[in-house]
């Protein structure tokens, strides 16, 4: 009933608060269910936040944010405040913010919960392309059965126990 979580060679249980903060900001990207955007900040500023926290120099921040916004198709909305975005656009900004530090792992909490069908499919395609293009491990927690179609592997929880549901033969 005990174990250890190893992320990028780091044993989580052996890290102090500073080490855990470093893991959270550089190794793991997180996409919250409610987007987690600062509504009064622009798209650009919301994506830039993890880079500011990590102390990345301005020139590199500008390059990375611009590149990520181009990748998600929102470069033309860089100066738009988050409060004026649609749900699908907010989700794409949350995905961009999670990936701007090029993490090894992205954790997505119900990434399709607040989206219409088209926006849900676009978000899932984007997460799948992150896995393919950047070799990022994407872990999605969801009640949405459509997510399974985008997964290489899926597990379900039954009475508190994880069980294999789908395995890729890749």
The CATH homologous superfamily is named P-loop containing nucleotide triphosphate hydrolases
Low-confidence stretches: none
For this structure, the CATH topology is Rossmann fold
Count of the separate structural domains:
1
In whole angstroms, the N-to-C terminal distance is 31 Å
Q: Name the beta content range.
A: 15-25%
| Strand line-up across the major sheet | 3-4-5
The helix content is 40-55%
Shape: globular
Assign the CATH architecture: 3-Layer(aba) Sandwich
Number of helices: 5
Name of the CATH class: Alpha Beta
Element-level helix/strand string: EEHEHHHEHEEE
Largest sheet data: 3 strands, parallel
Features:
170 residues; alpha/beta; Rossmann fold; 3-stranded parallel β-sheet; two-stranded antiparallel ribbon; 7 strands; 18% strand; globular
Commentary on this structure:
By secondary structure, this protein is an alpha/beta fold. It has one domain: Rossmann fold, CATH 3.40.50.300. 40% of the residues lie in helices and 18% in strands. It contains five helices and seven strands, in the order E-E-H-E-H-H-H-E-H-E-E-E. The strands form three sheets. It has a three-stranded parallel β-sheet. A two-stranded antiparallel ribbon has the order 1-2. The radius of gyration is 17 Å and the shape is globular. 26% of the residues are buried.
